[in-house]
Amino acid sequence: MPARHERVNTGVRPLNYNYYKVIVFAAAVGIIHELPLSYTGKHTDLPLQQIELQIKSIRSSTLNIIRLLGKTSMNTNLKLKIGLLFTLILFSAMTIVPSFYKDSPEWWKKYLAPQGLKLGLDLQGGVHMVLRVDLDKAVANSLGLSAQDLKKGLAKKNISAVQLDSPDPAQVVFTLPNTGVLGEINEIIKENFQDLDIDVQSEAGTFPRITLKLTQDKIDFVRQNAVDQSLEIIRNRVDQFGVGDPVIVRQGEDEIVVQLPGIKDHERAKDLIKSTAQLEFKLVSQQSVNLQELVDQAKAAGQWREGGDAEQLKQLNLGLQASLPKGTEIAFQLIVDEQNPKKENK
Question: Membrane-crossing residues (predicted)?
């Protein structure tokens, strides 16, 4: 008769370690994932000795687990995997300690967690603003500067040009004394104002008129540059404000998104942005006074500093009112564009 094999039920099922690997891994991922959510953004005042005791406790527990794994009947590969998993958990815990305890050793902060946990608006709140840059005004300001320069150039040629009110801010209209000066005006514009398009209207019995517009290439450049300058100014202002990890990005053609995590005073944040987001272009007389000398004197007297806000600029002009030509004031423009790769204040 063939041999008969009987299955004996001992009542003990073999241990399936795959289940335990999944459970341990899921628990570790969950703990690491939830740690940032438990962080409030504030350090605790626990002394360094207590921190070291907690770390020693974690290390001791990990070593005990490793020793326990060595005594079990699991295969070597599984032991290595679980040991590596617990080592990863321990290392992860060590890297977040500086985020919780301000008295962590400097070498710990430098090599294990140089930046710590950084929370955004979703975890610690703050200010979220969407700003719109007035691109049409930027174009109108640029056109106004060119038109004024042209008018001064014509005056040097003894050509009288009277600027008229225009319903379109993207146009500047001048009346001329006669049609005989049109040829000379065209030459001046062609030589010195290549960014201007000119349209001549001349009818019998009326003074001739010229309508000036910026070329499309110039308009595109001004619109792009206006947003870039606004971004740069806002970033510099927020840096002075001391906000940690702000988000300042361009959105679409003319919008700037500003996120200031941790800021509770919304009105102060709005005042901060409003004081620098507006770009204005103003003419400054440099014929009768040395502007740089006046500014240097104001700096020495503590009346002005580089990157000052709109209120300081207003005070500077009030202080120098007696030294400036009547109807003029000092203005600064931050130049950051393709034509001027270096940052400079003018």
Answer: 82-101
